Predict the 3D structure of the following.
Amino acid sequence: MSEKEKLKNMDPNRNAHEKLSFSGISDLPDIVISTGHMTWNETGTWRYMKPRYRNLVSPCVVGCPNGQDVEAWIRLISEGRYDEALEKNMEESPIPGVCGRACFHPCEKSCNRAQFDRSVSINNLERFLSDHGTRKVPKVAAATAKSVAVVGSGPAGLACAYHLRRMGHAVTIYEAAKEPGGVLRYGIPDYRLPRDMLAEEIDVLKKMGVEIQCGVRVGTDVTWKDMERFDRVFLGTGVHVSRALGISGEDAQGVMSGLNLLKKVASGEDVELGERVLVIGGGNTAIDAARTAMRLDAKVTILYRRSREEMPAHDDEVTAAEAEGVVFQMLAAPSKVVTENNRVRALECVKVKLGQPDESGRRRPIVIEGSNFTVPCDTVVTAVGELADFSFLPDGLKVENGAIVVDDSLKTSNERYFAGGDVVEQPHTIVNALAAGKRAAIGIDCSLRGGSFEEALANITLATGPALSMRQYLAYREHKKIEEKVPVVNEICEYETLNMDYFEQSERVRKAVVGLTERMQTMPASAPNRFKEVELGLTEEQAAKAADRCFHCGRCIECDNCYIFCPDASVMPKTDEFGYAIDDYHCKGCGVCVHECPRNAMEMVRE
Amino acid sequence: MGNHAVSWGVLRSRAQVIAAYPITPQTQIVEELSEMCADGDLDATFIKVESEHSAMACCIGAAQAGARTFTATSAQGLALMHELLHWASGARLPIVMTDVNRAMAPGWSIWADQLDSLAQRDTGWMQMYCESNQEVFDLTVCSYKIAEQLDLPIMVVYDAFLLSHTSEVVDITDQGPIDDFLPPRQAELKLDPGKPYAFGSLVMPEYYYEMRYKLQEAMERAGGVIDSVLEEWAERFGRKYGQVEGYKLDDADIVLVTSGTTTSTTKYMVNQYRERGEKVGILKMRTLRPFPVERVRKELAGRKRVLVIDKNMSPGLGGVWAQELRAATAHIPDVPPIQCYIAGLGGRDIRPETVRDVIEHGKTQESLEKEYHWIQLKN
């Protein structure tokens, strides 16, 4: 057999270092072709830089004040692992079902995809995992012999209780109302957040062993002295007092606060609104009150003293209210409640124009003298802001500017008391309250264990913060190191560092809503489901599509690009675990893998 | 248009991978091919690339995997491919490429001039020059057959605008007969995950010399293969081509050597001289590589004058065709001095009067007084 024939029949895996010898041109192949493998040629010695895998923090994770590992649970959704997605979410929050419906989702603002086409539908995906995952009761650590009282069962209280209980502390929640949930139960209407959803999530806390005492007002039904049997107390009582309008006649019958209206409806009480309802204000409470009044057969007008752009309410909500028939009277302010026999008959208003921006950045309303007009109505609902009532607080807690004063660990001026949520100075949102509950739980745990909160922060702050990782804290407090599949560098993955060659523009997945016709049919008080949930969840197909839009910023998802592009076959998938192995003996350090990584999950390091 | 003739030639040849980067005057070729791919008329992968260098790299990879490939370019684009042109021939890949002759910049020019392709003379590519759009179509198809029999790449070359953007009637041969003429490519050794080989890797000095010998040996066979493929084409489709072609050559005393579209203008002038009874003829060059040494020796022996019209200029020596002819006929008795006329650079028209001036000047040149002559130079 000639060498040429031998070559044709040769095992390509033979070691090419064992040389073939050709007698001459009749023997040689026509083309330059390998005569076996080349592993003997250790090209790794040419290298002076080496690729390595490292994950960064996706911007959604820190865009969420509560530090949800959004990317991680989106990936689980896209893999069809809904139970694990829900479990992953619940590492940081007890109420994914609530947040998937009612969170104002700042995560989507930070989503890198927003700079490419439109952000990933994170909020809808959170609801999806809550709807499609099976709720598991989280693990509770061994009992610590410490106990904590949580006053208030809104999002801050629930989060604080949930996390403290996971750490093994005994937790008792005190709630003044009949049912737990605070603002979630009494402030957000059923059509946005169904009660049974909330109940299901609170039930998880009960199953974990959190004791919930409803109808007990601390300071009245039990005394602050009674609280001394607890090692620590968390105050998450929220804000309940509606700001007054400051005009004459506002004590008349038929004038009520938005909060009160929502609470009454949520409590199942009958509310007589009459035919014509005027809602005053431009925030979320005003919108909730207006849409609730629509569902009680009223003709509703919202009176707001600025223009639509200045409304603090979320745009989606305003749009939905408009669609449902709420009338907006912009640039008008109330000047007097017109009464008859101490009963509301009309509201006298005055027209307003906008001047220079004030300290809130919004244009200041200026009353136009003599532009008074009167709007006849049966009920006036006030929703111009809420205040905290601190009269119930124990003595000696420092309060400033309508908020309890706290330090970085949310500890008050009394070291046994912590506070968070709307009672402290922070944005009044569900997710900020959740974050405060988590932070306070960590602060309380540190103080109970005599640990340093600052040191904990240094270990669990996500990138630039302020969001904290409870997953990391639970490992940290047990002196454990989390073995990540890919080492993590605690920095945000910026949009500019992604390789956009690998992404195509795609349409943002939109949540479905119950059609207006059906919505209006259910609205008359006689209809059985008048507070039926308006927004529908994503179907599995939609969720897969929405999840597929995620860039997975800074996180290796085994897309195989590095493996495919390596010109030296030096990147190989690991057979028994996640990720890839780099063959040090042959990697030339060319950096193609790093360059072609779509999501900046690799970097070159000098050796 | 010549450019469309290429696209149709590639379609009929059932190319499987096309990679190209746009450059005037070539762009229409790949534009039309991209539409043919998009419309499903041509079952090929069309790869958009960021440069001509990448286009050739794609063709190399695809050809190595056994595919029939195509690309097209001009001037600066061809120059950018230069490194990979060597690779394609060294790796013995039968890639077919169209080069629409365009002058090299600067001065920036989009017009016809042969220097771009002639400058790639030593890359191991075969080159064939076309005079008409029918030739463009026919030779594109023939090129696949020639290249694949030799495992050598080939360039089909023609003049910018004079052919590329000029409409002529072209007989687009039906698919069936072309399929009979050109069967699918069969690559003996190719990239195959089932039987992995590395291609083009290190060869030590003990064998590189022999590998080059084999490349040249293929080039030596190329003349015969080209002849037989062109003969088969003529038999099947009735259109006959050669590596060199004569026009009123047999009894000619004065032979004008031309290539590309210059030939047509020269034919017109030759006819005028013939009417006056002067024995003027044409030797039309088709192949630059392999260079048809024996043919030109035979055709040029015994003539009174050999006048080469070179639509190119190799700075420092003169016209490339003339140099090649001189080298081929050196020391061959009875071949007169080969006179070189530089004409038509950068798209300057070669008009009948230009040819007339060449002939009249040539008549006065008994010996080789100058390596080359400028014709109609604006002093």
Summary: Chain A touches chain B at residues 8, 12, 22, 24-25, 28-34, 38 (CB under 8 Å). Chain A has a mean pLDDT of 92.
